[in-house]
Design a protein that fits this description.
Chain lengths: ~180, ~700
């Protein structure tokens, strides 16, 4: 199902990576942020929303990255280039990410920033929407959010253009050892 | 049709930007839609959607109450109203109670329906549309021309002019740059707004949820940043079960924009914390505005199965020529005509309903399985019932309903037309058909109609008898097609009889809403055609075949004339179109087409009624192949030729360009001959080539097959 997901997600201009463990995922993430110019300046911050991935990470190892912040406020999100969050599920047949986004931080980092980096447990790839709807229901979440590729529009002359109101890049990072449900 | 309406059509068809953009889009849409639905059983999917939407629509009051109860239990404020004025007042009150000065909106047709923006603006509240297309038309002071792509009628140059004025900086027409400008301009508006207003693509009663789908991400911002969120939802968006959103999520993006899923889907089922830790004030307004009246109407209730994908606009050969603004200010296209008739008033649809050529393309793709052309016909019928027919049409139909007088006039026309005809075409028609030859020559009325020629045909006596229903065009304009049909059936050992009492099939009257006339025609024909013992009634005109097969019954039913319905059913059971019958005879080994000849390439035009109502498209191709032709498909082979009976007479400014497109597609195959099963299409396409000087031969399948028997 991973291969199908990757094909579908790349089909809508998302970038897809996969790592066996947290350490290698983190290594990729740090390299990516640096390469893309993360810095301790408005417009270049990276904002990481609270998530299970972070629970087992030694945050001190992240201190060296200037501009990486963990307080996902509205003000910071509005001036961050990168938003990092963990999502619960991935849908193979449409290349979609799905999460309980009741906590507003989850939406701020994935909507106001230019680049959204989504961490996903590899074991949580589901075949399709009907399967997801049996697992993620309104009883659990007042705001269920799904993301399929970066923000897009074709409102001017039907020309597909990426990045209108939401992120212009969506980087999906699967982590095999990241378990648990959403 | 009023002169103002006619003028708006003329303006639209002469707007090269509009027709260019829509034409290009409609061509790409067809291909992309098919790709998006690959591997999906569309009939099964739309069957499910139609069922679940119809189920909710059948019990709207209970389902709406269930939604309200469940949503309230989760902390949502629910307001139900049937009046647009009340809805506007409610929204204004929420805004004023919270000292709201600016609002951001994501796309909502329901707010367009109640003209919310000007109302709030008059009360001093700034309203910012955030969907890029909606923002563009807001800046331009226009209304949406398409439900999904509101600014499709505008060029990048026009957008660049608008944006340049807005930000006071000269911009180029580079699209990515323009999109960036929109992002930068709208971001502060999102951050400043105290209230967000959205629509709702689906409302789920079981969980009190609303589902929002966008590509740009604006609905996520509208529902996240301001502390108040109001969702305005028409009650036709209600479904019962949470699980049932899956089929709609599957069909809506595929049908709307040929995407597997929109970039963002939000399922909101109650208030969530704001960025400052307070709780969101969430309002859902369930608006009726005549929807429950619609639900109570035995025919129009199906219109509530609409999921607002606008695919009926995307495949409409008329829409792609005229665009949305001709249809009015809110809902456009096929479904828009129906919604306008209800949400506004029947009278408002009087002119726009006439735009429908009844080709059926929209019915084929509708994910809600709505018979859009059928409902537009019903609007036509009710308009005629309410207002009566225009005098000139009354005069025409009183003639059509009197066979002797009607046929007498056609005979007279054959003489009167003579001095004006050159070869086989009339350049200038006499009588009431005077100014109808724009871009197309019309056939001369035959000197001797088929009904007279038939008496001179010597047929071998057959054991099986089949009745031939000619229809007006074959009888009076193309009698040679009738003779070809007799030749073919005789070869199969069938004797053809021609009941002289047969008359017009009633389609012209019916398609103009004159059901009484159509019913009169139906009864006359039933009497004539069921008089003798025959195995089939065959017709070489798909429009007539549809009349005999389906419409006699539905016309009589809708008028409550039950007396003739059993006989109409009997006629329907034995009615068959030419290609289906000939294919049957070939399959049974009763008829053999001469083989061993290479007759070269031919292209085939699918007639609307044959392909989409009678579901016949493979049969004529197979027969032409057997007869020695190599069928080379044209682009858009099943797109209407623009004839549509009297449509081409009423709206030549639309019919003309549709015909020109068809001629171009035919010519581009390089085939020397184009075949079709409908004498109406022959008349339109042959006439088009005659005036444009094209070399392509236009033939009815019946003639081509008769040559190979």
């Amino acid at each position: 199902m991973y291969e199908q997901f990757k094909m579908r997600a790349e089909g809508v201009s998302a970038e897809v990576h996969r790592f066996v463990n947290r350490a290698s995922a983190l290594e990729f993430l740090i390299r990516f942020l640096k390469e893309e110019g993360v810095a301790d300046a408005p417009g270049l911050y990276a904002l990481w929303a609270e998530c299970p991935f972070l629970e087992d990470v030694d945050k001190r190892s992240l201190e060296e990255i200037a501009g990486l912040k963990f307080q996902a406020t509205r003000e910071l999100a509005a001036v961050s280039r990168f938003g990092i969050s963990q999502v619960g599920w991935a849908l193979a047949d449409t290349g979609t990410l799905a999460q309980d986004a009741s906590a507003v931080e989850q939406r701020l980092v994935s909507t106001l920033t230019d680049i959204h980096i989504a961490l996903v447990p590899s074991s949580n790839i589901l075949p399709d929407m009907p399967t997801l709807l049996t697992l993620l229901r309104p009883e659990q979440s007042n705001y269920i959010a799904m993301i399929t590729g970066p923000s897009r529009t074709a409102d001017i002359e039907r020309v597909l253009t990426i990045g209108v109101h939401g992120p212009e890049r969506l980087v999906i990072v699967f982590v095999d050892e990241l378990g648990g449900a959403g | 049709m009023g002169t103002e309406f006619k003028a708006s059509i003329t303006r639209a068809v002469n707007n090269a930007n509009l027709t260019g953009a829509l034409g290009k889009f409609s061509e790409a849409y067809k291909v992309n839609r098919a790709k998006a639905y690959e591997g999906i059983d569309f009939e099964e999917l739309r069957g499910r959607i139609a069922d679940l939407k119809a189920h909710a629509a059948a019990d709207l009051e209970r389902v709406a109450e269930e939604f309200a109860r469940n949503a309230r239990a989760r902390g949502t404020k629910v307001f139900r109203s049937s009046s647009p004025a009340e809805v506007r007042e409610y929204i204004l009150k929420v805004a004023q109670d919270n000292s709201v000065t600016s609002v951001v909106k994501s796309k909502s047709m329901a707010t367009e329906e109640i003209h919310l923006n000007p109302f709030l603006e008059q009360a001093g509240i700034a309203v910012g549309e955030t969907d890029l297309g909606e923002w563009i038309i807001q800046l331009a002071g226009q209304t949406p021309s398409h439900m999904v792509m509101p600014a499709i009628h505008m060029t990048k140059e026009e957008v660049s002019d608008l944006f340049s004025t807005e930000i006071n900086e000269r911009l180029s027409s580079d699209i990515p740059r323009l999109v960036k400008v929109a992002r930068n301009e709208l971001r502060p508006k999102f951050l400043a707004a105290e209230m967000g207003i959205s629509g709702g693509n689906i409302a789920v009663a079981e969980t009190g949820s609303i589902v929002l789908m966008t590509n740009e991400g604006n609905a996520r911002l509208v529902t996240t940043l301001p502390k108040i969120h109001i969702a305005l939802v028409g009650i036709e968006k209600l479904i019962e079960q949470y699980q049932d959103i899956a089929p709609i999520l599957k069909a809506l993006p595929r049908s709307a924009t040929a995407q597997l899923l929109t970039s963002y889907v939000s399922i909101i089922s109650g208030p969530t914390p704001n960025t400052d830790g307070s709780m969101k004030e969430l309002h859902v307004i369930l608006m009726d505005n005549r929807r429950s009246e619609m639900a109570a109407d035995p025919l129009f209730k199906q219109a509530l199965q609409c999921i607002r994908c606008a695919s009926c606009l995307n495949v409409c050969p008329i829409f792609r020529l005229v665009g949305g603004h001709v249809f009015g200010k809110v809902y456009t296209g096929g479904i828009g005509t129906i919604l306008t008739a209800w949400f506004d008033e029947l009278k408002k649809s009087e002119e726009i309903q006439g735009l429908c050529i009844q080709c059926g393309a929209c019915k084929d793709v509708c994910p809600g399985k709505i018979d859009i052309p059928g409902l537009i016909m019903e609007i036509r019928r009710r308009l005629v019932q309410e207002q009566g027919l225009p005098l000139i049409q009354q005069a025409i139909y009183s003639v059509v309903n009197n066979r002797h007088l009607f046929h007498g006039m056609l005979r007279a026309a054959s003489l009167a037309g003579k001095p004006f005809s050159s070869g086989k075409f009339v350049r200038h028609l006499p009588l009431f058909l005077a100014d109808l030859t724009d871009g197309r020559s019309l056939p001369a009325i035959a000197e001797k109609p088929f009904r007279d020629r038939f008496k001179e045909i010597r047929q071998p006596k057959g054991t099986e008898k089949v009745a031939f229903y000619a229809g007006c065009l074959i009888d009076f304009a193309y009698p040679e097609m009738g003779e070809a049909l007799v030749t073919i059936l005789n070869k199969a050992g069938i004797e053809v009889i021609f009941p002289q009492g047969q008359t017009c099939c009633g389609a012209p009257a019916r398609y103009n809403g004159a059901y009484e006339t159509a019913a009169g025609n139906a009864v006359d024909n039933i009497k004539a055609l069921l008089d003798e013992k025959v195995t089939h009634v065959v017709s070489a005109c798909p429009t007539c075949t549809v009349a005999l097969d389906h419409e006699f019954i539905s016309t009589l039913e809708s008028l409550g004339q039950t007396e003739w319905i059993p006989k109409a059913r009997k006629l329907s059971a034995i009615t068959v179109d030419l290609s289906t019958l000939v294919k049957l005879l070939v399959d049974q080994g009763r008829l053999t087409l001469k083989e061993g000849h290479e007759l070269g390439t031919i292209t085939y035009h699918d007639s609307c009624h044959l392909k989409r109502t009678l579901k016949v498209s493979a049969e004529p191709r197979e027969l032409l192949g057997k007869a020695g032709y190599e069928v080379k498909e044209m682009f858009e082979c099943d797109t209407c030729c623009g004839m549509g009976g009297s449509y081409s007479l009423k709206l030549p400014e639309i019919s003309g360009p549709i015909l020109q497109r068809k001629l171009k597609n035919i010519s581009e195959t390089g085939a020397p001959t184009v075949a079709m099963d409908c004498p109406g299409c022959v008349m339109q396409i042959r006439g088009g080539f005659d005036q444009s000087g094209g070399e392509v031969k236009v033939r009815h399948t019946v003639e081509l097959l008769a040559e190979r028997c």
